[in-house]
Amino acid sequence: MNKIMTMVLSVMIMITMLYTPVYASDNSTEQTYELSGIIAEDTVLDKTDGKYVITSDVSIKNGSTVTIKPGVTVEGNNFRIRVYGKIDINEANFNNVQLEADNTGSDPCTITMNKSTYIGGRLLYPTGYSAHVYLNLTNNRFYNLEGYSYIWYPADVAYITGNYFENCGALSIGSEEDVYVTNNTFYHMHALSNGDKYIIEDWAQYYSNLYVEKNSFYDDSLVLKLSSDGKMIAKNNFWNTTSSSSISSRISDGNTNLNLKETIEYEPFLTEPDPNSPNIEHLYNDGEITVQPTCLEDGEKTYTCLSCGETKTETIPALGHKWREDYTVDKEPSCTEVGSKSIHCSVCNAIKEGTTVEIPALGHAWSDPIFDFSSDGKTATATRICINNSIHKDTKDTTITSQVTKEPTCEENGETTYTAKVTFDGKEYSDTKKLVDIAAIGHKWGDVSYVWSDDNSKCTATRICQNDNSHKQAETVGTTSETTKATCETAGKTIYTANFGNEVFKTQNKTVKIEAIGHDFSDEWTIDREATCTENGIKSHHCSRCDAKSDVTEILAFGHSYVPGTIKATVTTDGKHFDKCERCGNVINLISIPMASNIGLSDTQYIWDGKVKTPTLYVNDSTGRNISTANYSFTEPSGRNNVGKYTYTISFRGDFSGTINQSFAIYPAKAAIKSIKAGKKSITVTAKKKPAKYGAKYMQIAYKLKGTNKWKYKTTTKNKKVVKKLKAKKYYYVKVRTYKKVGNETYYGAWSKQKRVKVK
């Protein structure tokens, strides 16, 4: 009892976590319900106060049903809903969901969708494995689906009816049951990723038909396509044309591809859409104002289809005038002229009729005069400006007086102050202007004197003005020096140079002599040339300062000293024996060791018989000569009597180095069919022995329908297997083989002879 309660509680916790509500943001009351993981029991999605958000792939377990109620929105974020059980979608909204059918032909899933809107993402896209499904898509709207929808052998009659597809990929269909694609509208469909463009493809139709009827096709590119074993009936469709040749050009079948047997019947065709097929329903955005409305003229708002780019417009009514409460000045009054004001529209600035009012003239209001001196200060005018209107001006000439207010010096100019006076309306006004207009008298310099510091690191240049001895120019600079060193036999010198920034001071040079220092020979010998095995060397006493030499003496050559050496051969490179001088590296007596390149087993494949297999190992060098066991050892694998792979490891030594592996394999024995018994839509296949009697673990039965090349397979650990769900009254070919998995490898026995049987 406790174990059952724990399992129930675990399932309840898992379902609760699948759609825990969270608020979208701090400023929003819309809730989001997170979906993820495995849904393991019947579940209803009915929250309409927010939306369901998929945060990772969702899987609907076999035996479980998910029902999505009207008004529900699911945001997929391009995650998958993998349907192993059943999903029933009614009047819901799917955005960027990847809806995938899973399971096998013996245990199909179910997908039902009605009156829903599906934008972005994928629908029944190819997964690379079987996707048997009970399928019913009715009265839905699909926009911007990526890739194409791959309908792979539906489990029963499939219906795709009354749907609207815009900017979606193709429907690619293969079936053993009837499929009805009826009363759908296909508009502005996109090409596949490889560039192919068509709307409906049938690549396999066994014992059934694909009915494509009463649909509306608006694309003028390829619409219907047959491949492989496909066949299709496509009468009574609307093609947006009445030209039979134009319709025929949109069909790919046996008439255009001679490798195909079937052709598509498309006549009669409709000259207008079937009333039960949906009209074109664009997915418009919220629109933008493309022409702004004015007070008197209407505006325009444009909506764009998010799928195909088509647009539509709607009129925005004129706004009408919005009159301001306050007056607006239309003309400012001047000193001599009246102005005006009126009531204006705040939008277009139009004037309201009958609201214009006069504004009285202002009269002049003069400012204080502004004086304008000539550049030499000897003349000037005075101008006063009306404060109400700066265009109105009154100008007079002035009376000028002057006075020297600063005398000139050697370096500075003198100054004159000019005074201008004028009278307006009985009141006197004045202004001054100071001009530096008396030239400086300039310096009269004496000769330059240069003084060096005691250590010659500095030099000072000086000159004095004869007009005023307080005026002095002086500059002290650091010197640079260039020394020619004294040698053992030759005297040296240092030249000091002073460079001044003031161009009136000239560059000065001063030279100081350095006496020669004499040789200092070392008591130690210096090797001038090393003696070698074949040549004499030289040594001498060197001067520590100038490298002069004394007592030059010869060193006798000391001859070669050889030692034996070996470079070991490998499986890819030759080796060698040799004698090498340990002093100079000279090599003599070179003898090659051929590489060990011819290594193998006498047999690499055996058929299992339960006996131990021991192939012969041979190890030869590149010349074909047998390599002595003194130069290698090997490890022999244990067992060697069961199915699998066995490896010898050869380890080299002596004149050789490295390791190498050589392997052989034992495969299961060839199986044989003892009997095949036909049953109702089934057969019972019996092998002569169980798999273990062939050295294997599994028996694999292969069968195919006569006239086809598609083999199907069943596996058992016994020697008997029942194969079900076959076509009644049909012939099948059957063969068997055994196999065994060892580690990551699978070892197959040979196929038995094929036998034919007729199913009841």
TrEMBL record:
Cited InterPro entries: Ig-like_fold (IPR013783), Pectin_lyase_fold/virulence (IPR011050)
Gene3D superfamilies in UniProt: Immunoglobulins
Signal peptide: 1-24
Key words of the record: Signal
Name this protein carries in UniProt: Fibronectin type-III domain-containing protein
